[in-house]
Design brief:
single chain, 308 residues, mainly alpha, 2 domains, globular, disordered C terminus
């Protein structure tokens, strides 16, 4: 009970403090008390940390969409830890449970209990996503265990980096505003964009494929979450390294994985074949869904993964 109360208190701080900091940042922006370095730190920190979540925690660790070079793996796991969304083991276990029970009883962030619960209310509830059940194989992975056990270090680093860089760029005032924009405001944006995949993309948008859940494609979240908003595509082909399955479905995370593969830093990249796309389109038509038509973009035509 004491541990549960402490967890909820920490979660409340993690949710509320960035929100208050963002209100302060908006006021400073309105008053023009913002330096160019603040916005630069915000963009850079948001980008690298988002990749830690989308490419590292999600596609690499949870769905095993590709096998990375060990150095790339460590970097992505550290960046994912800096998102303040939990350590690698717990994040993976929670998301694996979500896929196992998507939009049914037991789903950690099911919209069946309302938008607010799916967005952030679930954080304060008992999700019971035990890594020993949902990602047992990772308990033998020394890199994952190391990054998970040193999670607090990376959380501190997520705030120390923009503070230090802001100070180097603009002195003590720059250090404080760098912490505000590159640390707390970045954290606020990262959280709510990530959580929007859980809430918005299970309630709003379009369904390209027939799936046993309410997942939907929402282009705004697709842009902000670096491709994660093509969520119905993802639930149709969960192990695919690419969530954008049309040329116009911008998937920045997929582009990064493609680049890593080209550089020899990622291999065994899972892709969806035209044959599998055709089969799922047929299922969508049979179920009365609007199918996804047309050829997939370059790079989405090789190894088949039929895991659903």
């Amino acid at each position: 009970m004491r541990h549960n109360t402490l967890f909820k208190a920490v979660a409340l701080v993690v949710v509320v403090v960035p929100f208050l900091a963002t209100l302060l940042a908006i006021w400073l922006l309105w008053d023009r008390a913002v330096h160019w370095s603040d916005l630069l730190l915000l963009v850079v920190m948001y980008t690298v940390v988002a990749f830690g979540v989308t490419v590292g925690y999600h596609r690499m660790l949870t769905h095993r969409s590709f096998v990375p070079h060990p150095a790339v793996k460590v970097i992505l796991l550290v960046l994912g830890s800096m998102a303040l969304e939990g350590d690698a083991l717990q994040w993976t276990a929670t998301h694996t449970k979500h896929h196992a029970l998507a939009d049914r009883e037991g789903d950690p962030h099911s919209p069946l209990e309302g938008f607010v619960h799916a967005h952030l209310g679930w954080i304060f509830a008992e999700t019971d996503a035990d890594p020993r059940r949902y990602c047992k194989h990772l308990l033998q992975d020394r890199l994952v265990l190391f990054v998970s056990r040193t999670h607090l270090l990376w959380v501190v680093l997520a705030l120390a980096i923009p503070f230090t860089l802001g100070g180097l760029l603009a002195g003590w005032v720059g250090a404080l505003t760098g912490l505000l924009w590159g640390g707390l405001v970045r954290q606020f944006l990262t959280h709510h964009v990530t959580w929007s995949v859980n809430s918005v993309c299970h309630m709003f948008g379009k369904r390209a494929f027939a799936t046993n859940d309410r997942s939907r494609n929402e282009w705004v979240v697709g842009l902000l979450a670096f491709g994660e908003g093509w969520h119905n595509n993802h639930h149709a082909f969960p192990r695919s390294a690419f969530h954008g399955l049309r040329w116009w479905q911008i998937d920045v995370s997929g582009y990064l994985i493609w680049t890593l593969e080209r550089l020899g830093l990622a291999h065994e990249v899972y892709r969806v074949t035209p044959a599998l796309l055709t089969a799922r389109r047929r299922r969508a038509r049979d179920a009365g869904q609007r199918p996804l038509t047309g050829a997939p973009p370059p790079g989405v035509t090789l190894t088949v993964d039929g895991a659903n």
